[in-house]
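Why run this: before we spend reagent on co-expression, it is cheaper to look at a predicted model of the complex and decide which construct boundaries make sense. The entries below are exactly what would go into the expression plan.
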Amino acid sequence: MARVSIKDIAQAAGVSHPTVSRALRGDPRISLETAERVLALAHELGYSPSAAARSLVTRRTHTIGVVVTSIADPFVSDVVDGIEATLAEQDYALILALSRSEPERELAVVRLLSEHRVDGIIVAASRVGALHDQDLARLQVPLVLLNNQAETAGTHSLEVDDVLGARVAVAHLLQLGHRRVAYIGCPDRPRSHARRLEGYRQAHLDRRLHPQPELILEGRGAEGDRSRGATGLTELLSLSPPPTAVFCYNDITAIGALEAARHYGLRVPKDLSLVGVDDVREASLVTPALTTVRQPRREMGQRAADMLLALLRGEAAGDAVIAPVLVIRESTAAPIGQ
Amino acid sequence: MARVSIKDIAQAAGVSHPTVSRALRGDPRISLETAERVLALAHELGYSPSAAARSLVTRRTHTIGVVVTSIADPFVSDVVDGIEATLAEQDYALILALSRSEPERELAVVRLLSEHRVDGIIVAASRVGALHDQDLARLQVPLVLLNNQAETAGTHSLEVDDVLGARVAVAHLLQLGHRRVAYIGCPDRPRSHARRLEGYRQAHLDRRLHPQPELILEGRGAEGDRSRGATGLTELLSLSPPPTAVFCYNDITAIGALEAARHYGLRVPKDLSLVGVDDVREASLVTPALTTVRQPRREMGQRAADMLLALLRGEAAGDAVIAPVLVIRESTAAPIGQ
DNA sequence: GCCCTCCGTGCACACGTGTGCATGACCTGA
DNA sequence: TCAGGTCATGCACACGTGTGCACGGAGGGC
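The model came back. Tokens follow.
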């Protein structure tokens, strides 16, 4: 423990401790001579300022809290990586707190961040939303919500443009020549589900096409993503004619559909094109590699941190919308006969 | 910001602030009556103690630093998840710091943790090791190293039993009836490479078999894991007779070998059995799903945190070794003719 | 030579909490 | 009635840093 304080330096330099404080902070009122002497001594004694003592008087901890449901989720950890990158540049410390979607833990998180007097908070909920809001807002600290499913008043938020992502993905399929493009959705996440569906519609309308209702599957709630992809595809194949391409709510759903397609003897992308959303690790590994809509996760983290730091500087920061990127791989091709 | 202090409570309760402090900490010397009054007021006013002020006098911040190379690495994020679980139980805050394998950043990390006076530090290096040690040790704070490649004196460490993991994996292959089992290693990580090779040897000796030198591939350094798996397998197939099973340094190497096997028209596991190490996400997703040696990552994080907390309580904590687990999936089977 | 100005530094206090010691009230026993 | 003891509380100080203000000295203008 570096237990040397500015008082020790003061004594060694033969000055008062306020002089040391000013010298270290580069106060121009201190003579060059003493400033140099103090700096040299500080270095020599291995002085390290106490963030606690400093924050006590400045009322700033230079610390921000990051609340996520689970750090094991690759989406979340990429976002946190981006957050840290920006914060580290500004010498902010990052307190990581996991809510684990347990009310008890969420309460403890709020208490922890409150006691440590974080200057600001970023909440990156991977899936479920609508938590914390109330309690965290009560801390009276700048709050940035990332990809939150719930609309919360009084906070700043940042999210990916889901409508645009879906629109670009479906436009890609339509441009390849597909005319029967299906959508397998996700009722568990109503907000992004509705937006992706909207993008699906817009892509059709952009080409003066009308989406066919029987090709739009809401899916059942109780199912997991993967199984929803499989059962969804089974259902779609019973139509006549069946779709030649499917836009899936996310990559895991698309992989489920991919497995089902293989089971039915369909070749992807020759007989069926598939597109997912998220660009999870598995997407590039599966055979054929999945065409997908990537959320620039790291960049989103950076942007969120930038927003928060701007708020801390007293600047006004509106909400931000990030544009996703279509990554074309091997699971999409022109339909047979084109 | 909860800016109400014990002085405010004291004033409201008509007592002195030390009395409030004692009442909140449950000092038995305070009368039950005033204690209750103080607690009620504290709750009513929304009091939240200042960790900074408290730590200034107690010389304990109840905060620990976690240093990792990259949080985006799934191994690391699982470990951090485990660390957080244990720390949260004890109401410790967790400052996350990324070194990113950049000397400049490592220096900044040390400075940051030093200024925030963390009570202890856990270093979880995913791959490269031999960093920080010097600087971090200088902080005079309990230090736990997790899976570090370098031997560092004066610190506590925790690692997975690499020898045992390899031994169990190879024993599995031998028990299936394989008699020519190869090993594709990794010269970049000499420590764990040597240990897995040792486990490979032991498994043979356990059955009174002698490993054949031509079946042991060290691999070239410049190559990536995946490509090393592919070129390694190619080399092995030129032997006569070729091996019927391969134990790979890690899953990515095994996947590289898997792809090469497919390229040569070999069916896995019918013609060739493959085993990896790590149980990365991809391992269970690839076809056929990979038999592998899982490192209990989350548990390792928990154990590391437990060790650190024990050290903080002044207890002696030796080094710990974690036993890995063999996960049998679809990439291993008895050789043809068995 | 005197007054004013400017420059460098120190004094005192503040931030919020914890703790050793003293203080006063009350009770007990002789 | 008084000495001694217990109990609840307050006083003063400490932790390490930052800042408003006062102070002393040097220099310049008249």
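The mean pLDDT of chain A is 92. Residues 190-206 of chain A form the longest helix (17 residues). Bring this page to Monday's planning discussion.
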